[in-house]
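Subject — a protein and its fold
Fields — amino acid sequence, structure tokens
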Amino acid sequence: MKVLSMIQPWASLFVLREAQYETRTWKTNYRGPLAIHTSKKINKAVCSHVAIQSLLGKHGYTTETLPTGEIIAVCNLEHCLKVIEKDDTWAILEDGRKVSGNDFFLGDYDVGNYAWVISDMKVLETFIPAKGQLGLWEFDL
């Protein structure tokens, strides 16, 4: 299965659906099943932000309890949509979707970046230890 590694807290916030999209500076032509892996790195500066603490706390997480180095969920990658316009509080994707609110706050919507659109997010009952990699990588689930 294809796997995408993400830094915490972004990985958990995405898996918990606090963010509808994962933003990347690159796109992929791959579509289909995708596992979400948490890298060993935690962005502690981001985790210290009161809004991030609140979103994590809503799901029972703190910076200290975020999973790292594990595959935590599976989903289906549907699209990679280019960001074509950005303001201070919103962005427009190439299909006309407007991104705002928490979705905008939790992503990197610079013009030219991509919003990865997924469906069917399922958090795994048991997380799977794995060493992450850059880009999309393969793992036998």
About this structure: Strands lie at 2-8, 21-24, 32-42, 70-86, 90-93, 98-100, 114-129, 136-138.
